[in-house]
Every structure is written in structure tokens, then in C-alpha cells.
Amino acid sequence: MANYESKNHRGYHRDRNQRPHQDQRRARQTERVQVEVGQRFPLTIKRMGINGEGIGYYKRMAVFVPGALTNEEAVVEVTSVATRYLRAKVHRIRKTSPHRVEPRDSYADQVGGFELEHLDYPAQLAFKRDVVAQALERYQPEGFHSYDLRSTLGMKDPYGYRNKAQFQVRRNAEGQVEAGLYAERSHNLIDLPTCSVQMPVTMTVMRAVVAMLQDLDMPIYDEEQKSGIVKTLVVRAAAHTDDVQLVFITNSPKLPHKRELLERIANELPQVTSVMQNINPGETSLVWGDDTRHLAGAEAITEKLGDLTFKLSARAFLQLNPAQTEVLYDEAKKALDLQPGQTVVDAYAGIGTIGLSLADVAAEVRGMEIIPEAVDDANANAAANGITNAHYEVGTAEDLLPKWVMAGFRPDAIVVDPPRTGLDATLIETILAIRPSKLVYVSCNPSTLAKDLVDLTADYRVEYIQSVDMMPQTARCEAVVKLTRRQ
After folding, report:
1. Which residue among the candidates 314, 362, 397, 444 is catalytic per the annotation?
2. CA 191 to CA 194: how far, in whole Å?
3. Is 477 in the active site?
4. How far apart are CA 313 and CA 120, in angstroms?
5. What span, in angstroms and rounded, lies between the C-alpha atoms of 22 and 29?
6. DSSP letter assigned to residue 94
7. pLDDT the model gives residue 308
8. Range 391-411 average pLDDT
9. Going by C-beta distance under 8 Å and a sequence separation of 6 or more, which residues neighbour residue 246?
10. What is the pLDDT of residues 298-339, one digit of tens each?
11. Angle, to 10 degrees, between the axis of helix 397-406 and the axis of helix 425-434?
12. CB under 8 Å to 322, separation ≥6 — which residues?
């Protein structure tokens, strides 16, 4: 449940093809609007933005209001003023949406990762399909008006699904150890004693370890003083094997009271099968450091997806929702429609989850990932599952794919599952140069997906976009795009 920072809101109001005189007229309108922080006014919410906030208009200026829903009428209070938009909070709701529900988590309006918990689940699924439509309308890739946007695939129970809790650890003013998430747009830690979207075992372990840190008077990291040791706790559970891994992310290699701590974990938390330490010294925006050390139990945990088993080291990426991961990858496999004897590249491969699921049909699977431990896991996973026609290398897709092509390997199909930043420009150029007959794009960010489709649709036709709800109660949306090469 990372704090999901909003994107640059200017993109909502200024199309890239907008004429200069339109921009100038809007600037003149903005100059005439005098608004101050703390000012209140009535507002009708016209729609919801890609980050789950309500959007209304005050004297033609867009107003972004977290927690407000489409068609609600509210009195809002301005919290910040920008050149072309305002941010505000709900002061009072005059007309309530029929889709509004009471959030299960009392802190849902304080931290990121619960943006939609006040919206009923069918409406969440409709919103996520609409987010894809909004992104397409904004970037306008070729033929976007006729794309087949399929209804979002959701969950029967959209709670208790997250297999990993990654919480910051701090001491409060009373000296009590707390673990949770930062309040939106701040470094004020909100302690999370409960969390409805986490798998219950992750919270059981998290709260027990917090109590141990308190009892042992462990040196907790202090951001202001830049001192202390324990920064972050990470608990990851495997849904299908009952393995649980606990990682202490620390400011130094030292871990005082390590022996007592490990003894208590072994005695009080038998469900924990792996204990690791990751060292990330100093002040940094990155949660993880490069040095990971084994403390107790196994060095990795094992998860199952479909008929395959996967080894997970501490830093290896795996989707946070095990049940929907199988749905997502089944959709990717269906969209790729790989035929016997065809070769495939699994770009941004992680631990090989997508590529290895294709190996029973493909003549050869090649994949790449930038985290060495994940590549080790991917190759180990291939071996553990008896797969001999899949191979993974360390590196970026934009570097390795051209290298493979130069060596004579031209894939029939490519599946890409990039980070939120989307595809690297060099990789897009390479895809368009080698023109594999089949291309599937697994996206975790509709905005960068739509932007990438502007280039990809020069040579590829979008057959359909299938949105999948991997993270209920949040504004995040995943999508599988089936593309076929134009003749």
C-alpha cells in the first residue's frame, strides 16, 4: 500500500495538440479567478480522475477533491492553489452518491492505497474501465474510439488479498514503536494496527514483530536525527504454500538483540519460514538497498501459480494479489495465443511468471530483468518446474532484445509487463523494427499504456483491452492489451 502520489494534473487540462490561443484564453480565465487556501464553496462533482479523486469545476478551473464521488454535491475547502487547478477537501456533502459506502478502514482517507474504499465494488470496476477510456481519450492512439474495452474482471471478495505488507517503522512522541504508512503528501506516519486489504497472516506477523521491537527496545530509525537502525518491516506470504518471509530493512548491518529477536520469532511466529535483513543506509527515497542477508529459516519462500511453483527471494517482484495474478496471466496467455513452435520474449520478466507459463507451447522463451536475484529465481524456477526451453538474463529489454536480434534471434511473439513508467523508447523502436506477429502489453498504468500505444499503433492494431482489478479499494488498474501486426 504505497503512498500513490498523484500524477501531474496539468495533463488533465491541456491536450498535447491544443492550439496556443486556447492555452492563452485559459490562462486569462485563470488570472481572473482569485482563490485562497481555506476558502469554501459549493461544488458538483462531474467525474472521477485517474487517481480516484472527484473532479468539479469552479469558475472553469478544475478542482480535485479526494473522497468525492461523481454526481455528488459538496461544500469543499481549498487546500492548495496551482496555476490551472485547485485541490480541495470535502467540508460537507449536500447530495450523496448512491454508490457511497462506509470504508472498513478508519484511516482510509489518510494514507494512500484506499482511494476507493468509500465506493461500492461494482462502481469501482466500472471506474477502472473508465480510467482506461480516459487515458485513451487523452493520448488518442490510432483508432482508439473503436477499441473493444472489456468490462473489468474483479474479485468475489475484494478484501484480504494483499500478500505483502511493507510498513515504515518509527517511534512516536511517547516512545512507542509504530508501523504503518505515511499520510498523503507528508512524512507523518499513520500506525496501522489493522488493514482490511492485507492477507490476515501478514498483519498478524507485522503486529507481533512490532511488539517484539518495543519489548527489546530496538534502535528504531529516526528520520530527523538520521540515526537508529530498523527502518522498514516487510512481510510477504505465499497464498498456496503457507510460507511467510519477514525482512528487516535497516540503516546499518548491525542488528542489536538479533539473537533474542530471532528466538522470539521462532517461538512465537512458527508461520515465518524465512527471515532476512536488507541494508539500506542513510537518507534515501528508496526503500530497498542492494545488500540482502540471510538471518534464519530458508533464504526464499515458494508460491504456486497454476501448475507451476515459483521461488521468491526478498527483492523479487510478484504481483500483490495471488488470486487475480492467475486471472491476469491467463488473460495474457489467451491474448498471446501462442502456437506450437513459436518463440517468445518475456520482457520485464520478474521471476519468470508469465514466460514460464508459456513454455509448454513455445519452442523457446527468453526473458530479461534488471534485478539479478530475480533472474536467478527465474532460471531456478524454470529448472524446478522441469522447463528446459526458457532462459533469463540480467539487463533491460531495450538493451538485450536488440542484442539478441543482432545475433539472429527474432521472436514470433513478445509480451511486455513494464513498470508504471511504461516502455522505454528504444524498446518500442526495436519492437517496431523486428515486428513480431504477436504482441501483448500487460499494463499497470493506463496513462503510460495509452501513451505507448500512440507509437505502437503505427504497426499494430489493438484487438481489445481487458482491464483486471488487481488492487481493489485503490485507483490502480491493470490491463491486458492484445495487439496484432498490421499487414
Report:
1. 444
2. 9
3. no
4. 36
5. 11
6. E
7. 93
8. 92
9. 205, 209, 233, 234, 235, 265, 269, 272, 274, 275, 276
10. 999 999 998 999 999 998 888 999 999 999 999 999 999 999
11. 30
12. 161, 163, 238, 239, 240, 303, 305
